[in-house]
Target: Ubiquinone biosynthesis protein UbiA
Amino acid sequence: MRKLLILIQNLSIDVTAGAIISSLYVAKLFGVRLEESMLIGLGVAIWLIYTVDHLFDAKKSIGDSSNQRHAFHQKYFKPIASVAFIVFLVGAFNLYYLPWATTKLGLILALLVAIYIGSLHLLKLNKTWHKEFLAAIIYSFGVFVAPLSLLEHWDVFVFYVFVVFFLIVLTNLLVFPLFEYESDRNDNNQSIVTLYGKPFVRKLTTVILVLNLLLVVCGMIYLNPVMTGARWLSSEYILFMMTLVLAALSMFPNFFQRNDRYRLVGDGIFFFPLIYLLL
Model:
């Protein structure tokens, strides 16, 4: 069972599934229904982004990587690259079935991905463009593309949900490098932690966590009466739980470092919205 779980993590299947679940959650909040082509497009996009990123990291690692995921992509570089090409073709074929409004927003996502890959892996501007912030923007926007494309207008509520979700994703991507500091340093991979050190990133993470908790609580108090009553409140509990789990990761690093628990828990929070979907 553990080997299967590690395989799922190495192939970013859990991250992709979490993105799809989160997008369905956002769609339910906004009162829109996603088509199958939208979910396929999101799954393809997120999986390709993460896989291509890992392939680049694996290729530039000197010797055998000490990072489990990078080592996996080093070992199976060609098979994974071949599968990625096939998945890309599936995504290209799926474009035919996407509504034009979704495709237009998808082009913005594609531009962000091009900036991400180009700046970090081709131009190697690691010290200018921080991977964690760009990745958080791309992941969050990817989750929101389909639901946003179905809305006639975007109000304050839409921006509120996006900001809260973005801060959750950003915190997740700031916490992970804290756990992977040693492997990143050994493999000569740059992260915000290797650039600025653990104390700075811990403080930054704490500030973002506190800010997000305040936003969620304010949403419970001020948005609940004008939104969907108990249903909106229950959706806020999901965001609240996701933020609290990330706080726990930050507060108890020794516990979550063992057996890479941080990876299971940190990526697992994006399955929490499934609770709301089943209500």
